[in-house]
Specification:
heterodimer; A: two-stranded antiparallel ribbon; 74% helix; 3% strand; B: 492 residues; two-stranded antiparallel sheet
């Protein structure tokens, strides 16, 4: 099978999966099997593209023109490859996890859940493999719309309100800023193709380029840069698998991925560095990192704390792009993968605690390590990875981001990264420490180990192990990312 | 055969109308009208095909050569609008059978279909004629029949709505007539092509300018340009469902076509947009229409009325594109004619489905209705997405062209306002979606069943078209661009 077909299949397979899931709506085991098979198939497809990309090729396919001159086009380059790999692998883990979670938590409308989930993955693949900004935008919007029913899954008043925030912020930023910027780019450059080195050089004055770039960064609301971050905490009303895969990996990473992609392939890192257009946005990202971490400390609801942590960590990637040098891009790209594994582990743990004990508040989780040692152990590992301590993968991305700040001569931003790590320690580590070392409430006698179902615990152990593996063996990802840095200029 | 396509386009429905009145029984009248409307559509497709090959077609009525006889003339733009009108008619009629039986007393159903055919005749006639006075005649045929159609609505307020429309519409028609009369005074001709030639030597006279002003205001009334839209919300709200869908998708579009014809063919782009300040005035009014009407739509509790205000806003988009008088702007306006017909047609048909089962489209009666009528509400939701302009729908195509046109013209603020008003559309569409999907169903609506297939299929045909023409725009954008270039006298 040639790579061109594989690219198209990667988008079609989840859609077909969604259809099959809907057709097997009366048989829940069949429905879950279909989900799992689809997820595995997708991962195999994505992996089969890896060798080609590693050799430096960029397989591309151009479909029909949606508007004159604006084709539906796909191209696999290293950054998209990385994103697709992470998202499709973690979909397998999430599919297993969903089975246990959704059943044990007695969620309703499970068919709808699995169907939209599959469609969301299809649009994620579309974003990852988009060959031009137009295609990316189409899938970006589809992803917003298709995740709305997942966010509002429970149908409660709270979910409806959250859905409103979700939709208005994501559609609002993407219509007002992003679409505007895209059409403007189209008029300036006459093309929206992603090209190494960018397409905007010598098309407009530095001021215009600066405004345009800001429109892009803030227009990509999925990157949750402040002040357009409110949708992410709101989306936490969704079932935990949604928060785990979509709002820690697929959707939010689609945002920061788009920011990276725009910086590298539309503007070009060199152009940004020359013009300094991205410098002030780097400070906004830095502010987001610190403020979101501080807010996270005040949240007692575990999922909310994790959500604010995500906002903070997403800005690491944005910061990496804004540094406009190879180390920054490398670190930002790696952080997409590293944070994905760490954060999905933490969300899986939050969900496992919820189904096993019905606890959502951190203050109630004292001594939980005695009944749920595996879950809390994984939580510890995930936390270390987010903080960026060895022996976890999170170390590498922070390392390269730090190098990037030095290369850019921004010592202040390096300090921000270090302070942020300390803040991460402060809001994440107390949770596993209290779980293991504090005495549980007297009202709840410890009755030995009672974990969440195996289908919940298994995936979170796998992703936690992933954090470790990425520390020992980050080399393939590094090689993938260094392809961009060497090609991108 | 092809030589007569042009006249057949009008003659078929015109001759059928009195025949329909003679038929006994509502089923026969419906079946007859349905056949006629499909014949009209087939004719429209043939016509478009011929025009695309030949460039433009001309037909002398009774073989009296123009400019003394009445000439019918069709180019890409008119063939495109004919196609819009004919296809909406052909889609609405299968839907009409059950809807009309539900909403209109049996003894008036024959009358209904007769008026429907007359209205179709009028709308088609306006588009194909090349004669300014003949245009007025067809305008009156379509208007009078639509007053009747609206007044057939079940609600008694339909009568006042129709009367209101009658008054406003007549004022508009009178303005048009005065405009045509003044032009005749100056040139001694009514043939549009002839007028175009003879007006330019006398263009710098007060009479011609007055004629232009009268025509602009009169047509703006018919196309419901803000602030001359006051007749529209009531008319669309209280008309029978099938009529709302048909008129919303066609009547204002045809009026826009008339505006285009007068601006670009008769007066010429130099006179209309350089000698007269109509570009600035129209774009200002269009922007206000987009914002004000969308905001007003947010506060409507009757969903048909909400859609009606949304139509006023969407007319704003169309007029905005036209007022830029650039190729991209005109393309945007013309493509949105088509796209808006698709989305509003679909949405009003969905309203018809709801009305059939609930007897109301008040927002409170729609609580939790998505569980009882999933297909209808899904159609509403998808049509709403198209109205908002989400990618892969026709609405997105229109929006893209329109913003591009505004930016090409360096109108940054206008571009931002276009995008902002599409966010207002999110707000008013989602208000309904939340009520229908999240609220628990009311006890009265628990027994409600899904709308019958004969009504759902036409609705979904239009929804499908919204997505088809949003994904493959090669046909629509090529047609719109060609029409725009013809109007501006660029290319062939």
């Amino acid at each position: 099978m040639n790579p061109e077909t594989t690219i198209q299949l990667a988008i079609v397979v989840p859609l077909v999966g969604a259809l099959l899931i809907w057709m097997s709506r009366s048989y829940f085991k069949q429905r879950e099997t279909v989900t799992l098979v689809t997820a595995s198939l997708l991962f195999i497809l994505v992996v089969s593209l890896l060798p080609v990309v590693m050799e430096g090729a960029k397989p591309a396919v151009v479909l029909w023109e949606l508007l004159p001159g604006l084709a539906f086009a796909f191209q696999v380059e290293p950054l998209g490859m990385l994103f697709a790999l992470v998202a499709s692998f973690l979909w397998i883990a999430t599919s297993v996890y969903s089975m246990g979670y959704m059943r044990r938590h007695h969620e309703r409308h499970q068919t709808r859940f699995y169907v939209y989930f599959a469609v969301a993955l299809s649009s994620t693949m579309g974003i990852a493999f988009a060959g031009n900004m137009f295609t990316l935008f189409v899938f970006y919007e589809v992803l917003t719309i298709i995740t709305y029913p997942l966010v509002t899954h429970t149908g409660t008043t709270q979910a409806r309100r959250a859905g409103r925030v979700y939709l208005s912020l994501l559609l609002g930023t993407s219509f007002l800023f992003l679409l505007f910027a895209i059409i403007w780019t189209w008029l300036l450059a006459g093309t929206l193709d992603f090209q190494a080195g960018g397409v905007l050089r010598d098309t407009a004055s530095p001021t215009v380029i600066g405004i345009l770039f800001a429109l892009y960064v803030f227009g990509i609301g999925k990157a949750a840069i402040m002040p357009f971050h409110r949708w992410l905490p709101a989306a936490m009303v969704a079932p935990t698998p949604v928060s785990a895969l979509l709002h820690a990996v697929a959707v939010v990473k689609a945002g920061v991925f788009s920011v990276l992609k725009v910086s590298v392939y539309l503007f070009g890192v060199d152009l940004l560095a020359e013009l300094g257009s991205s410098e002030w946005i780097a400070y906004v990202a830095a502010a987001t990192i610190i403020i979101a971490s501080l807010v996270a400390m005040t949240k007692d609801n575990l999922k909310l704390r994790l959500a604010y942590s995500t906002i903070s960590q997403l800005s690491y990637v944005v910061l990496g792009a804004m540094l406009a040098n190879p180390w920054g891009v490398l670190g930002g790209g790696l952080h997409i993968a590293m944070h994905a594994f760490g954060k999905i582990t933490l969300f899986f743990c939050a969900g496992a605690i919820l189904v096993a004990t019905h606890k959502t508040k951190i203050s109630e989780m004292r001594g939980l390590g005695r009944t749920m040692p595996f879950t809390m152990g994984a939580f510890f590992i995930g936390s270390l990875s987010i903080i960026g301590l060895p022996p976890m993968g999170g170390l590498w991305s922070k390392w390269y981001l730090a190098l990037g700040t030095l290369e850019a001569g921004q010592v202040g931003l390096l300090v921000v990264l270090l302070i942020s790590s300390l803040l991460n320690v402060a809001y994440l580590l107390p949770i596993p420490i209290r779980a293991f070392f504090s005495a549980p409430d007297k009202a709840e006698p410890v009755k030995g180990i009672s974990e969440a179902p195996m289908t919940c615990v298994g995936p979170l152990l796998v992703t936690a192990a992933g954090c470790l593996v990425l520390f020992v063996y980050p080399e393939p990802l590094y090689r993938l990312m260094s392809l961009i840095v060497s090609n991108g200029r | 055969m092809t030589a007569h396509l042009l006249i057949l386009q009008v003659i078929i429905p015109l001759v059928s109308a009195p025949v329909c009145l003679l038929l006994r029984g509502d089923r026969a009248a419906w079946a007859f009208t349905l056949t006629v409307s499909w014949a009209v559509l087939a004719n429209a497709l043939l016509l478009l095909n011929t025009v695309l090959a030949a460039g433009s077609l001309s037909y002398a009525i009774g073989a009296w050569a123009g400019p003394f006889g009445i000439e019918y003339r069709v180019d890409t733009a008119s063939a495109f609008v004919v196609l819009i009108v004919a296809s909406v008619g052909a889609v609405v009629l299968p839907f009409a059978y059950k809807s009309v039986r539900h909403e209109i007393p049996a003894e008036r159903i024959g009358l209904f279909y007769t008026c429907f055919l007359l209205c179709l005749t009028g709308l088609l006639g306006i588009v194909v004629t090349g004669d300014a006075f003949n245009l007025f005649v067809f305008l009156e045929i379509s208007s009078l029949s639509s007053y009747t159609l609206i007044s057939l609505g079940r609600d008694r307020r339909a009568l006042t709505a129709a009367f209101q429309y009658l008054v406003m519409g007549t004022i508009g028609a009178t303005f048009i007539l005065v405009g045509v009369g003044l032009m005749y005074m100056m040139t001694g001709t009514l043939n549009m092509a002839d007028l175009a030639e003879r007006l330019s030597p006398v263009a710098d006279t007060r009479t011609v300018r007055a004629a232009f002003a009268f025509l602009t205001v009169g047509v703006s009334l018919k196309l419901a340009l803000f602030p001359l839209h006051l007749w529209l919300p009531n008319a669309y709200t209280y008309a029978p469902s099938a009529v709302s869908a048909f008129l919303a998708a066609t009547a204002t579009k045809v009026a826009v076509y008339v505006l285009l014809r007068f601006f670009f063919t008769v007066f010429g782009v130099e006179f209309s947009f350089e000698a007269m300040p109509v570009g600035q005035i129209l774009s200002m009014l269009a922007v206000v229409a987009m914002l004000v009407a969308s905001t007003v739509a947010l506060f409507q509790d009757d969903i048909k009325r909400m859609l009606a205000y949304s139509s006023v806003a969407q007319v704003g988009y169309i007029i905005l594109g036209i007022s830029l008088a650039s190729v991209t702007g005109l393309t945007a306006g013309i493509i949105h004619l088509f796209n808006h017909a698709l989305m509003k047609g679909a949405l009003f048909l969905a309203m018809g489905c709801l009305f059939l089962r609930l007897g109301s489209v008040h927002i409170q009666d729609l609580q939790g209705i998505a569980r009882r009528m999933p297909w209808t509400m899904a159609a509403f939701l998808l049509g709403g997405l198209s109205l908002i302009g989400v990618p892969l729908t026709t609405g997105f195509v229109s929006k893209w062209y329109l913003v591009q046109a505004a930016l090409e013209d360096n109108r940054w603020v206008v571009a931002v306002l276009i995008l902002f008003s599409s966010l207002l559309a999110v707000a008013y569409v989602w208000r309904v979606v939340e009520i229908a999907y999240f609220r628990p169903a009311r006890r009265v609506s628990l027994r409600v069943a899904e709308a019958p297939a004969v009504m759902l299929v036409p609705t979904w045909v239009l929804i499908g078209a919204n997505f088809y023409f949003g994904i493959d725009t090669s046909l629509t954008s090529a047609l719109a661009r060609r029409a725009a270039e013809t109007f501006l006298g660029i290319g062939t």
